[in-house]
Specification:
Elements lengths: L1 E10 L2 E11 L4 E5 L6 H9 L6 E6 L2 E2 L5 H7 L1 E4 L11 H17 L8 H18 L15 H14 L4 E5 L10 H12 L5 E5 L3 H7 L2 E6 L2 E6 L1 H6 L1 H15 L2
Length: 256
């Protein structure tokens, strides 16, 4: 279970995230929505450790993550995907995933690959990476350099890297950003498949309300850095505070 308690950060005199307390349970996908500048990505950055909070705390499964770096939080179980892909462009698709698998294995066993184990370990890691690539339908592209992949496939590969890290929490920041109408459904299908594992918690920042309606079990709304709504999608979408703060008058009329 992931929990934020009075999470707050200021940039000069501006309070970007203001005392946000929220709990995210396993087996749920929570969409975090709000207008531009509402503090959604900043809240994500506070949870994953890209930014240090001025006040408040972050807990995961009873462990206080507040003082930990982003990499330490990843090892603790937070898996974060960004708006822009975060890959090794000059390596192959397989090598990208194998490195993520290796990082997970080394973290679990507190050791690196030594001279005596390197070949057997390399084969084991490669096999695990191939299984993940098959799950995201990219095994045929295993030897392709990442730099030559279209944007949609790079986003798929980033999900594969997250899967390789075996997080308990998946954090997606606008996963379909920059993707064409034909590419986006592939990423959404991957997230649907991740939802089937009821031991995982999924957080999703997304502007596309059709995506939110389809995937979310719960919606929380941030406005001016504050949590202004939290509940089931139908309940939250119908609330006046969301229609005014997020959707606006015209968009609100279009909501069924």
């Amino acid at each position: 279970m992931l929990q934020t308690e009075n999470l707050t950060i200021r940039f000069g005199g501006h309070v970007a995230v203001n005392a946000v307390s929220c709990t995210f349970a396993p087996g749920t996908l929570t969409a975090i929505v709000g207008p531009n500048g509402a503090g959604k990505t900043t809240y994500f950055n506070l949870i994953s450790g890209q930014l240090a909070a001025h006040e408040g705390r972050v807990h995961l499964n009873g462990q206080d993550l507040t003082g930990l770096s982003a990499s330490a939080r990843t090892r603790a179980g937070l898996g974060r995907a960004f708006q822009l892909t975060n890959l090794f462009p000059n390596l192959s698709v397989l090598e990208n995933v194998r490195l993520a698998v290796q990082a997970t294995e080394v973290g679990a066993h507190h050791r690196g690959l030594n001279l005596w184990s390197v070949w057997s370990e390399h084969a084991k890691l490669t096999a695990q990476a191939q299984i993940i690539l098959e799950q995201v339908s990219m095994l045929a592209q295993a030897q392709v350099p990442v730099a030559s992949l279209p944007h949609g496939d790079q986003r798929k590969l980033e999900v594969a890297l997250l899967m390789a890290l075996k997080p308990s929490v998946y954090m997606f920041d606008e996963p379909t950003a920059g993707m064409s109408h034909d590419e986006a459904p592939v990423i959404l299908d991957l997230i649907r498949n991740l939802k089937k594992d009821r031991s995982k918690t999924i957080l999703l920042v997304e502007h596309k309300m059709e995506v939110v309606r389809e995937l979310a079990d719960r919606i929380i709304v941030l406005h001016n850095g504050q949590l202004v709504a939290d509940g089931e999608p139908s309940q939250v979408m119908a609330s006046s505070v969301v229609q005014e703060a997020y959707l606006g008058t015209q968009s609100a009329k279009a909501v069924p």
